[in-house]
């Protein structure tokens, strides 16, 4: 007799299958998005640009970067053809990014001439007259060579270095080494008796250097104010004569310092002063004697 299938087992199998399909779809979408992101080209939209690109990434030029140069080139080849120049610019902008090259570590600079040569083939797809395409391309190359350039900074993916090897495990110490470290240290050897002929005798024994006393040898060498009789405190007996004399000297010195010092002037030039004074006195005496004599003679 056949056993009917269990509905719980069937539902579990269905859920497992559905979960597997969802996981596979998510993984495929992730791989597809990663591949698309890696394949996205770097579009340069500046005449003088410095860009950072990954190694192997495609480099493209946006038409808006050189559309003004296309207009100038058309007008140089066909003067006063403004309508034709405007239509050429509109068609040129509709082309989309123009491939320039692939980012490589050895190629980090694109000159204006290289950019013009990469864009020139697109000029034949903007509806220009066949006899004017070469002239427009020549003028376009000259204009772009002078005013455009691209510098690339190539960033390479960092490679993970090899993992450092783990340090080797140290082997456990041998059993003999452990036993040696656990053995008690041997007792110290007994000290050998010193040779009596070379040993230093203890202090106070014959043959040693006599001790030096720091105390005065006799009681008479003590100062007078420390000499006292047994049972009495030492007294201080100063010499009043010397102290009084020193006090007077200090007082006299203080008085002299307070009053100031008077010193006699040097008498080196006394002779020079005395001689003119003596001459003046003698002259005065002679004049006085003459006046007295004349006065006496007049009275007579």
Task: Describe the 3D structure.
It is built from 8 helices and 6 strands. With 300 residues, it is mostly helical. The protein has a domain at 39-155. Strands 1-3-4 form a 3-stranded mixed β-sheet. Helix 2 (67-77) packs across helix 5 and helix 4 (112-119) packs antiparallel against helix 5. The longest helix has 33 residues, at 7-39. The relative contact order is 0.07. Mean pLDDT is 74; it is low at 32-37.
Topology diagram in text:
Elements: H1 7-39, E1 42-44, E2 48-54, E3 58-61, H2 67-77, H3 82-93, E4 98-102, E5 109-111, H4 112-119, H5 133-147, E6 149-155, H6 175-182, H7 240-259, H8 270-299
Parallel strand pairs: 1-3, 2-6
Antiparallel strand pairs: 3-4, 5-6
Helix pairs in contact: 2-3, 2-5, 4-5
**Helix share bin:** 40-55%
Number of helices: 8
Radius of gyration: 65 Å
Backbone shape: elongated
Ranges where pLDDT stays below 50 over 5 or more residues in a row are 32-37
DSSP strand tally:
6
Strand order of the largest sheet: 1-3-4
Average the pLDDT over all residues and give the rounded result: 74
Biased composition (Pro residues): 164-174, 184-205
Region (Disordered): 157-243
Transmembrane segments: 273-296
Keywords: Membrane, Signal, Transmembrane, Transmembrane helix
Observed structural traits:
8 helices; three-stranded mixed β-sheet; single chain; 10% strand; 46% helix; elongated; mainly alpha
């Amino acid at each position: 007799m056949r056993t009917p299938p269990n509905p719980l087992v069937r539902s579990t199998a269905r859920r497992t299958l559905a979960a597997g399909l969802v996981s596979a779809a998510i993984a495929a979408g992730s791989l597809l998005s990663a591949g698309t992101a890696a394949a996205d080209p770097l579009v340069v939209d500046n005449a003088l640009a410095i860009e950072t690109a990954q190694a192997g990434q495609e480099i493209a030029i946006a038409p808006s970067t050189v559309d003004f140069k296309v207009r100038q080139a058309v007008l140089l080849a066909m003067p006063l053809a403004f309508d034709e120049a405007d239509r050429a610019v509109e068609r040129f902008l509709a082309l989309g990014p123009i491939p320039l090259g692939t980012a490589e570590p050895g190629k980090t600079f694109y000159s204006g001439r290289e950019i013009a040569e990469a864009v020139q083939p697109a000029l034949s797809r903007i509806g220009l007259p066949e006899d004017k395409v070469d002239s427009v391309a020549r003028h376009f190359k000259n204009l772009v060579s002078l005013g455009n350039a691209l510098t690339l900074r190539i960033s390479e993916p960092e490679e993970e270095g090899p993992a450092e090897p783990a340090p080797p495990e140290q082997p456990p110490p041998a059993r003999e080494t452990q036993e040696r470290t656990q053995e008690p240290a041997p007792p110290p050897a007994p000290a050998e008796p010193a040779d009596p002929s070379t040993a230093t005798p203890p202090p106070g024994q014959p043959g040693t250097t006599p001790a030096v006393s720091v105390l005065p040898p006799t009681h008479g060498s003590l100062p007078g104010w420390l000499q006292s009789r047994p049972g009495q405190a030492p007294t201080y007996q100063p010499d009043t004569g010397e102290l009084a004399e020193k006090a007077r000297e200090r007082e006299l010195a203080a008085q002299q310092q307070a009053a100031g010092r008077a010193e006699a002037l040097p008498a080196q030039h006394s002779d020079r002063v005395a001689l003119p004074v003596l001459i003046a006195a003698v002259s005065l005496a002679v004049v006085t004697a003459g006046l007295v004599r004349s006065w006496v003679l007049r009275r007579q």
